[in-house]
Every structure is written in C-alpha cells, then in structure tokens.
Specification:
4 helices, alpha+beta, binds flavin mononucleotide, globular
Length: about 170
C-alpha cells in the first residue's frame, strides 16, 4: 500500500535532528549553502558523512559540480543563520551574516559552528528528488562552545530543554 505523503511528513517531523549549514565554493569563488538536517555519520575509516540535498535546490548543482562541501553544525546561538540559509535570503547574500573562513577544500566554514567537517565528495547517489552526497572528511574543526546544539523537530527550532515533551 502506498504511503500517504502526510503520514510520511508527520512521521519525519518527530525525527529530531541537529541543524547544519552545508556549504560549497565553486572554482570561480561563488559560495552557496543551505540549511540541512539530513546529515548523517557514515564511517570512521575512511572518515565519511552523508547529506541529502534536494536536486531542485540552488545549492545541489553547485555542490555536485564543485565536488566539495562543508557541514557546519549549528549551536542554539545561530538560529537566525539557520533561517537565513533555509530561504530567508538567497545566494551569496546568505553569507553576509556570520563569520566565514576556509579549511582544506575552500568550502565556507562557519567560525561559530560547534564543529565543521570539510569534505570532498566520494560518491553521489541520485534519487528522483534528492541526491545523497557522501563526503570524505579532509579536516574537522572542533570548537569549544558554551551553547548547546540547535535542534529541529515538530516544525520548530529548539534545544534539548525546550523540545522535551513537545508533541506535534
Ligand atoms: C530545519 C530545516 C532543515 C532542512 N533540511 C534540508 C535537508 O536536509 N536537505 C535539503 O535539501 N533541504 C533542507 N531544507 C530546505 C533548505 O534549507 C531550503 O530549501 C533552502 O532554501 C535551499 O536553498 P537553495 O535552493 O538556495 O539551495 C531544510 C530546511 C529547514 C528549515
């Protein structure tokens, strides 16, 4: 029996996730990025993670063509950046807020992120609507932050305290 899309979406809203900004830089220097929760650890050897990106999004082709991306894991203090990179503003203007640097690949690294993983695409699997991008991690920048991770569940942002007991 086919799965009703509303049940799928309601079910996935229960899957609390850390919020990340996935970024890339084209060979011509153009930066792209989007807010993403579909990020997952894959393996330690080789150090690999994956992220799932909508193929319709402006960032997908940019990441795919550049062959590199960075995953910046947000703290609760960077909620406004999450909103910004989820569509509040577009393109290069997204990077007007926050402090951005680079590590090994040239993909934009958010200096206030809890951790940034700098990756090179090792494999890409294209599904009808989304691409699964496997990134071999070339560098990890881990920062000590007082703030906890920014979470997303039930269609809202929060942290471990505020999301506890939320029903949607
Ligand atoms: C909390 C949250 C999580 C999201 N996670 C993803 C994701 O994992 N993959 C994805 O393709 N889009 C995700 N999105 C949607 C993109 O952030 C949004 O469509 C963005 O505007 C795409 O930008 P672009 O078209 O400029 O690339 C998420 C949005 C929000 C608010």
């Amino acid at each position: 029996m086919a799965v009703d899309p509303e049940s799928y979406k309601a079910g996935m809203r229960c899957l609390a996730a850390g919020v990340c900004i996935v970024t890339t830089r084209s060979p011509n220097g153009k930066r792209n990025g989007l807010t993403a929760t579909a990020v997952c650890s894959v393996s330690l050897a080789p150090p690999t993670l994956l992220c799932c990106v909508n193929r319709q999004s402006g960032s997908y082709n940019a990441i795919h063509e550049a062959g590199v991306f960075a995953v910046n894991v947000l703290s609760v203090d960077d909620r406004s950046l999450a909103e910004r990179f989820a569509g509040l503003v577009a393109g290069e203007e997204r990077f007007a807020e926050g402090s951005w640097g680079i590590l090994a690949t040239g993909a934009p690294i958010l200096e206030s992120a809890l951790v940034s993983f700098d990756c090179r695409i090792s494999q890409a699997v294209e599904l009808p609507t989304h691409g699964i991008l496997f990134g071999e991690i070339e560098m990890v920048e881990l920062r000590t932050a007082a703030a906890g991770p920014l979470l997303y569940a039930h269609g809202d942002y929060g942290d471990f305290a505020t999301l506890k007991g939320t029903v949607g």
